[in-house]
Amino acid sequence: MKTILAVKNPGRKGKSSTILELANLMQTFPGCEIIFSSKTTISLTIDFRLIIKIKDKIIAFESQGDPGTHLEARLENIVKQYSPDIIFCTCRTRGETVAAISNIAHSYTYDIIWTSTYEATHSHNIANRLKAEHLQDLVVKLGLI
After folding, report:
1. How many distinct structural domains can be found in the chain?
2. What stretches of the chain adopt beta strand conformation (E)?
3. Cβ-count burial of 19 within 10 angstroms (0-12 exposed, 13-18 middle, 19+ buried)?
4. Contacts from 74-78 at CB under 8 Å and sequence distance 24+?
5. Domain range holding 97?
6. Can you give the CATH number for the domain in which 121 is found?
7. How far apart, in whole angstroms, are the C-alpha atoms of residue 50 and residue 17?
């Protein structure tokens, strides 16, 4: 089944950093093919879009899940253009971004797994990396890839 894994939390809690760690980790899979990447240079923003292929599965990453960023339209564009098996995205804990993910899941028959980042008072990079490892382990053990 097609699945959206949504990392939700308030602003500045490591959502984009976590899925960036996950995207970097997933790219180490044998035979991983990059189909599209919005990151060609280092920038001041961490937000990105990445589409990869692993074992005949299309996996999309969309990190810009803030209110006012037209998340629903961006996710719909990803679905229509790439028909991903898995979408990793970020959103806030309530409101328009959560509704956007729910609407896309309903319209295009995706299951949703909601999760959040680890909130640490220190060692944010380690916590983000560990969460990314857990998300990768989850999709593997669920047989999604």
Report:
1. 1
2. 3-8, 33-37, 49-54, 57-62, 86-91, 111-115
3. buried
4. 74/49, 75/100, 75/101, 75/104, 76/104, 76/107, 78/49, 78/51
5. 3-141
6. 3.40.50
7. 14
Q: Which parts of the chain sit beneath pLDDT 50?
A: none
d(CA 77, CA 95): 21
**109-135 burial by CB neighbour count: b if 16+ within 10 A, else e?**
ebeebebbbbeeeeebeebbbebbeeb
CA distance 63 to 5: 12
Q: What is the pTM of this model?
A: 0.93
Tokens of 126: 């380690």
- pLDDT at residue 132, rounded to an integer: 96
pLDDT of residue 84: 98
Count of Cβ atoms closer than 10 Å to residue 80 Cβ? 9
